[in-house]
Every structure is written in C-alpha cells, then in structure tokens.
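Researcher: Can you fold this with magnesium ion in place?
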Amino acid sequence: MIKFENVSKAYDESKVVKNLSFNINKGEFCVLIGPSGCGKSTILKMINRLVEPTEGTITIEGKNVRDFKPEILRRRIGYVIQNIGLFPHLSVKENISVVPKLLKWDKNRIDERVSELMQLMGMQESLFLNKHPSELSGGQAQRIGVARALAADPDIVLMDEPFGALDPITKSGLQNEILRLQRKVQKTVVFVTHDIDEAVKLADRIAVMNEGRLVAYDRPESILNNKENEFIKKFVGFDRALKKLTRMYVEDFIKPYQSVKISDSSEFIKRKLESEIFVWVLDDNGNLKGWLNNDDSTDLAEHIESLIVKNIENFQVSPDCSLKDALSVMMSENVVTLPVVDNGRLIGEIRLSDIVGNEKNS
Ligand code: ADP
Ligand code: MG
C-alpha cells in the first residue's frame, strides 16, 4: 500500500500540493485526474522521490520512501513519463534495458527480459529492437515507454498522461492492453490523466484533484454520479460535453446557405449582400472558391475576384468531419460559420450556434 499522510509541496511561497492524505491499495489501479497545473505530476514524482515533499510522509508498505535505497526504489517503481520521454539517442532495446543495467543484471537476463516485454507489448523484436525512438510511431513509442517502466518487474508503476498525445484508436488499444496487463501482473498503478473517460475506463479508484487538493477519492461510478460537489460536476460535465461532440458529425448539422457565382453580375451580387453578412462564392461548376463579406459590397463593381476571401481550404469541413473538429477549425480560424464541402462542391454550411445548441437539421 502507498500511503500519503498530510503531504504538502511548496515551491517558494506557493503550495502546489496541499495537505494530501490518501491510500492506494496494493494491486489497485488508481487514476489521478484534474485540470492542468493541479499537482498531478508532482504527486507522482513524490512517490519515486524525484520530488521531495515539504511536509508530511509517504510510505510504501509501511516504510517511509525516504528510507528506501535509491536502487530499491528504482526497481520497485516503474515510471512512464509525460510525453513518452524515451532517450532519443538510445535504441529501443537500450531504452528498455536502462533500469536492469542500473541494477547490474547480467546480459542474458536483460536479453530475456527484453524479449518477454516485446512479446507482452505485441511488438516484433526483429523489427524494432535496433530502431531509435524517432523511427517509431506515437503508439509504438508509447508501448516502449511502458515496456521500459515494467523492465525490472516493479511492484508499482507510475504513469503520467502516458496516452495523452495519441490518436483515439491507438489510445483505446493501449488502454485495453494496460488493463489486460494489470489484471495479469497485478501491479499497483498510479495513472495520471485529464481525460474523464480514460479515468472511468481504467480506474479502480479515481482521485479528483483541484488546485493541489484532493476533492474526491472514490470508485468511478460514484465520481460520475457525484451531485454534491460543484467542481466535480463541472469537470465531468465539461469534458463529457466535448467528448459528445467527437461522436456527432457535421452532416447532421448542415444548414442551407447563400451563394453567388463568380460570373454573376456585380449588381446581382450587391443586392444579395444587402440582406446577408456574407455569401459563399462558387464557380460555374458549383465548386467553392471563397466568400464575400457584406462590408466589401460598396466598391464591388470591377474586382470581385480580388475581394473574395480565398484560402478556403483552411476553413472548409467535410460532411463526415466530427463536430469537435469543426469546432477546432472555428476556434483556430476565428469564424462562426464554416462551408461544408463534398468533393470540392459546397453542400451547405455549419454554424457555431448549432453546434453549441446541438441543433440538428432533421
Ligand atoms: P499537473 O501535472 O497537474 O499539470 P504539476 O504537478 O506539474 O501539475 O504542477 C503543479 C504546479 O506546480 C504548477 O503550478 C506548476 O507550475 C508548479 N511546479 C511544478 N514543478 C515546479 C518546479 N520545479 N518549480 C516551481 N513550480 C513548479
Ligand atoms: Mg503533469
């Protein structure tokens, strides 16, 4: 069991972890969750003494971590660093072997262990052992990061947002592997994330942190159903709302649009713009070329071409794009309406207000 008793950490005057007391049972999967900067990484690092608490004590199986010899701590505690953190100049094999080498294992034992771990991670030795981290995909590198943490068969594994940078499919695959692995090898895992769905999927117990304090420590069901704590409700709710957008698609929210053709007369275009804030501009084949803003209409006569806002590729979304991605485009381009384009042709538009209101086009 890992036990935190009144643990605080201060940098200069400011306390970043405040009077933390909680236990992580042996063999349990504990997930620390909370907004960026709330102290999650600091808590992990106090377990393996990369950071020393300012106050309080941390014990492992009743023994103060300060009283462990460093090499014992290293063997008993695996650590998967935020942003993977493989050593770039070392090969895959050398990366996995770091701790066993520090522990002075003999070469055969290290080779055997590396083989075992590659098998566990579902990676073919002949393909990967001599590669360097820069030659791996995100998912492969992350697997090696996990293998490295497990190399000396630690009782405890600390994982700091290990899957944060991965695409959803790779992420989900690795989550499943970690779950399977933990059931099989019964490690005590302390896992940091800011993703509530990941926490619910993996955790036996979730510790919700806010501004250095433990707000709740409970089973996932209880955290999801917490109705009393405003922070938890907000944190779970906001994340859930964003998540929901990843499973909703632009095609269900497409709205009719106003457009003109490049070949239309400037009189016609002017009239059209009188009642619109902007219009999309198409060529004669219905392909989207850009848009015209209504404040441009005064001197439209000669030079429609030059007034069209053109770098339309940055703005357009396809019908199968998720609402979350559409929302990111709006945020990054600072617009509230996007053209929906299918094979170059404008088929409608999508608006921020419809995304926020979840207003479908049915
Ligand atoms: P999280 O992992 O939850 O994003 P951290 O534990 O990394 O948060 O950091 C908690 C707070 O402590 C942050 O405000 C961060 O800026 C601060 N902090 C972390 N490490 C240091 C340090 N070495 N010196 C000063 N402040 C730090
Ligand atoms: Mg962190």
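Model: Folded with magnesium ion in place. Residues 2-245 form a domain with the Rossmann fold fold (CATH 3.40.50.300).
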